[in-house]
Amino acid sequence: MKSVDDVREAGGADRERAGAAAGTVAGAVPAGKHAGGRRPGETRTREAILDAARACFAERGFDTTSMRRIAEAAEVDQSLVHHFYGTKENLFLQALEVPLKMPQVLAAAAEGGRDGVGERMVRAHLALWDDLSTRPALMTMVRSASVHRVAAARLRETATTILADALGNVVTGEDAVLRSNLIATQLIGLAMMRYIAVLEPLAAADTDTVVRYYGPALQAIVEG
Amino acid sequence: MKSVDDVREAGGADRERAGAAAGTVAGAVPAGKHAGGRRPGETRTREAILDAARACFAERGFDTTSMRRIAEAAEVDQSLVHHFYGTKENLFLQALEVPLKMPQVLAAAAEGGRDGVGERMVRAHLALWDDLSTRPALMTMVRSASVHRVAAARLRETATTILADALGNVVTGEDAVLRSNLIATQLIGLAMMRYIAVLEPLAAADTDTVVRYYGPALQAIVEG
DNA sequence: GTCTATAAATAGATAGAC
DNA sequence: GTCTATCTATTTATAGAC
Fold this sequence. Notes:
Two copies of one chain form a homodimer. Chain A is mainly α. The first copy, chain A, has two domains: 30-96, Orthogonal Bundle (Arc Repressor Mutant, subunit A); 101-223, Orthogonal Bundle (Tetracycline Repressor, domain 2). Chain A is built from ten helices and no strands. Chain A has helices at residues 42-60, 67-74, 78-85, 88-96, 101-110, 117-130, 135-144, 149-166, 176-196, 207-223. The longest helix of chain A is centred in the C-terminal third of the chain and has 21 residues, at 176-196. The two termini of chain A are 33 Å apart. The model of chain A is unreliable at 6-38 (pLDDT under 50). Chains A and B meet through helix 7, helix 8, helix 9 and helix 10 of A and helix 7, helix 8, helix 9 and helix 10 of B.
């Protein structure tokens, strides 16, 4: 598993921020140091639930994942899941939040001109899917896009906004937006077959091999 | 909607065959003409249920589709669905049966040598998805592949057996199987974004345009 | 903040009358 | 072959004790 930079999105709009360090535990917090802020222990449980939800949704999709299962995975009571996130729908929305690093990584890959941009995009995409801090949200999105309206909308949004924006300076000329769509199509297809359908030998192939063969396919569309 | 040849698979193993013409209705059957065969009226209801199931599964996926909903779509009682197909799982299996014409159409597209095979494959694939007699089964397969083991297996099988077989004489040399995987990846990605996620402007683009831009991308992998 | 208990809806599946 | 009625399990979600 390759590791990309450790930039993560703030998450849901109503998510509290940890005071300073990420590893803050209940017992390590100085007494009387939380005026108006969160009470110690709360955030940890809340995040544990969200992480568990992401993992479950990523692995089994929206419908197949029950609130009970998420609670079990987070090792908390079922009612706590509702207490923190209300409905299953809302929890799913939070789990869908795409890590901020995604547009950054893809934009970085699109830099550097037209030459070899196909291979760089494939490599960046694989890096995001092989990174354990970004994979669950991506997997949740793609896996549920077929049956959940919001996940599908998020997928479209990712394909257009993020990808088309990143490729804005690279894919130019006639039908530029359509061609960007087709590049996104190739990348989503790759995720689908390699990580979800687990098609062999593709799923077991190493990154370099995939980049070598698939990069030129993206490049063909970049060139128009 | 373009129409491909009208070859359809026999369906499930336990499916009865219609006597002669497809349009046979109860009243039009000669009396005493069904010794040991099916009783009139049965087949029609049975097929209506299967068609309705395919339509529902195609549109909403496995989990979201209830037996009651299928019964409603077929305009029959719920218990009839169980009567004919037993479990929901079994009905889903029947609905997944990929039309026989699929491998035929793809094999035909692969004929004619390496030149322009990318464009021919894209065009054949789009024809299958735009044909109302094949689309529901394909849609059912791809839409549920993310959450249903059997659908995923069918997708893998389609990608390897059917596609790799068709491309056997075209994709040769180093990593031929992996490259066939990547071609299937592109086609499934296309179906996913154009027909399921409905990404614009891709979904609204006409066939020729998609073929023109996407064909060379497949060709790049064929060439290696 | 965390738990027990349960409401309310819906699912798949079956029995049996006709 | 077709319908009514119902069983059983599971789901999301909430109320309320501590």
